[in-house]
Design goal:
Blueprint: H1 2-15, E1 16-23, H2 29-39, H3 64-69, E2 76-82, E3 85-91, H4 100-107, E4 111-117, H5 124-136, E5 140-145, H6 154-165, E6 168-171, E7 173-176, E8 184-187, E9 192-195, E10 205-208, H7 215-221, H8 223-239, H9 245-249, E11 253-258, H10 267-277, E12 284-286, E13 289-291, E14 299-307, E15 316-324, E16 326-328, E17 332-335, E18 340-343, E19 348-351, E20 354-357, E21 360-362, E22 366-370, E23 380-382, E24 399-405, H11 411-424, E25 428-432, E26 438-442, H12 446-459, E27 463-468, E28 472-477, E29 490-494, E30 500-504, H13 507-516, E31 521-523
Parallel strand pairs: 1-3, 1-4, 4-5, 5-11, 6-11
Antiparallel strand pairs: 2-3, 7-8, 8-9, 9-10, 12-13, 14-15, 14-23, 15-22, 16-21, 17-18, 17-23, 19-20, 24-26, 24-27, 25-26, 25-29, 28-30, 28-31, 29-30
Length: 527
């Protein structure tokens, strides 16, 4: 029995590809996600984002505030099958005012796809997300989008990848022209041409060639673009990095693809190459060592909690990344933090708001568990020996507000909303010492707006937010903590676990405190 299960596990794990899509706003992330789902047969008709004034909304955006703004605020999970692979896409918010939810979603992925606008290059938000990937050594694949529009020189874009993000690149294909002159790409791996026509979006014409100097390219692209392609390819062959899978897996080299997601150009080639190169599920760290995906016993951890995904049912879903073993509906597992056995009765898989009950799932899959209020971010579930995964740090907020309720009679609903949104990770809550005032901390400004919106629409509570000047939060670890020492340069508060946290207005105040209180450790993440 064991050997049969092992073979089944190995085969299923080998099929899985679980990745997050990261990008700056408007780089085309939602469009690329939709086209990937289209190829996977998960949707019949690609949605269009709000900017194109269409009545349909993107499949991966479901919260009302997302539909109004045409942006992804929370992280969606989507699954489909393609070419024998089971693909799990974690769609992260790309808006500049993103959240800790984005960081955490990246911990559930085995690799990341980074989308870059060919006209804008690497933007601020992409840098933040990329840094999280780099810290974890996650392989990164790059899709340079909007080649059918006037953009920057491809070499400039590759140079920027290295200078701004510190990662070398290997172009898997190379554009022939751009903007109005864009006529396709030369596929270096398959030695073929893919021809671009703006009118024909459902079929890409492919021509086999002997190499980039093939006369057929000259015939199709004309003398100027042909000559330029030959020069650029010679330069890449001589001065470019060689393809090295080990460096890709270590996050040191990114395979780069050029295309146009809105025109469906280059997406299928990208998907097929990506599924071929992307890592299958990897082992995860626990306090007791690594857990392999093919281990016989089931284990996983909660990386996201979302309340009220279906407003009609007021439901609450915990998103679980399966780390090892086989998941079966109705199985009993140990909830490690509370020390109890629980039954997983209605597991779900997602296509944004559409859900299916799932009977089995394997390492790499993301499933949604109905949560009656028993789960928290970072909770580990397992069979067999207890494991606790150390995948989910609490990140230091950068923006702070004091919160008050407009109607004192709504205090009970207010408290429920605060508790649930804290557990989801939408906000971090701090309480001042003595007065018990509530201060909210977030990574991005939009989270305050989401907090206000959801408190009003889901809990019926109007709140007022008063912006505070703090920029840094540091968790304090010391043999003993004297609040008086922190009064001069900072405000001392407590987080939801009663840890002491100092809030600082600027770097000078933070530096002064570290010098004056040398016995204390000032940590960027919760201990």
């Amino acid at each position: 029995m064991t050997s049969t299960l092992n073979k089944e596990l190995v085969a299923e794990v080998d099929k899985r590809r679980t990745f997050a899509i990261i990008s700056h706003p408007d780089a085309g992330k939602t469009t690329l996600t939709e086209k990937l789902l289209l190829f996977g047969g998960a949707i019949r008709l690609a949605g269009t984002v709000k900017g194109r004034k269409a009545s349909r909304h993107a499949t991966s955006d479901w919260m009302e505030i997302e539909k109004q703004r045409g942006i992804s605020v929370t992280s969606s999970v989507m699954q489909f099958d393609y070419n024998g692979c089971r693909v799990n896409i974690l769609d992260t918010p790309g808006h500049q005012d993103f959240s800790e939810d984005t960081y955490r979603t990246l911990t559930a992925a085995d690799c990341a796809v980074m989308i870059i606008d060919s006209a804008k290059g690497v933007e601020a938000q992409t840098k933040k997300l990329f840094q999280v990937c780099r810290k974890r050594g996650v392989p990164i694949f790059t899709f340079i989008n909007k080649m059918d529009r006037e953009g920057r020189d491809p070499f400039d874009l590759l140079e920027e990848l290295e200078e701004v993000l510190g990662i070398r690149s290997y172009p898997m294909n190379w554009p022939i022209g751009s903007g109005k002159q864009f006529c396709g790409v030369y596929d270096r791996k398959r030695t073929q041409l893919e021809l671009f026509t703006a009118e024909e979006q459902n079929h890409v014409a492919v021509r086999s060639v002997t190499g980039y100097a093939d006369p057929l390219i000259k015939e199709i692209a004309g003398d100027y673009l042909y000559g330029r392609l030959c020069e650029e390819m010679e330069l890449l062959d001589v001065a470019g990095d060689p393809f090295d899978m080990e460096r890709v897996n270590n996050g040191e080299l990114t395979p780069v693809f050029f295309g146009s997601a809105i025109n469906n150009f280059g997406v299928q080639t990208f998907l097929e190459n990506f599924l071929d190169l992307a890592p299958k599920p990897v082992s995860r760290k626990t306090e007791a060592g690594e857990v392999e995906p093919t281990a016989n016993t089931f284990s996983g951890y909660v990386f996201k909690i979302q309340a009220n995904m279906n407003p009609a049912h007021r439901d609450r879903i915990a998103f679980l990344r399966i780390v090892s073993g086989k998941f079966e509906r109705g199985m009993t597992v140990k909830h490690v933090r509370v020390g109890k056995e629980i039954k997983l009765a209605q597991p779900q898989q997602f296509l944004a708001q559409d859900r299916d009950i799932v009977d089995t799932a394997y390492a790499g899959d993301i499933i949604g568990l109905f949560d009656p209020g028993i789960f928290r971010i970072g909770d580990s579930l397992c069979q067999g020996p207890e494991v606790t995964f150390d995948e989910l740090p609490v990140f230091s907020p950068e923006l702070f507000c004091k919160v008050t309720v407009k109607n004192a009679l709504k205090h009970k609903q207010y408290q429920k909303g605060i508790d649930q949104l804290t557990e989801e990770g939408t906000i971090q809550v701090f309480r001042t010492i003595g007065f018990e005032d509530i201060i909210l901390g977030v990574v991005g400004q939009l989270q305050f707006e989401v907090f206000e919106y959801r408190m009003k629409n889901e809990y019926g509570v109007d709140v007022q937010l008063h912006r505070m000047n703090y920029q840094f939060a540091r968790w304090i670890v010391a043999p003993s903590i004297d609040p008086a020492k922190f009064r001069i340069n900072s405000t001392l508060v407590k987080d939801k676990k009663d840890n002491f946290v100092a809030l600082f207005e600027n770097e000078y105040a933070l530096r002064t405190a570290t010098e004056k209180i040398p016995e204390a450790k000032f940590l960027e993440t919760a201990p």
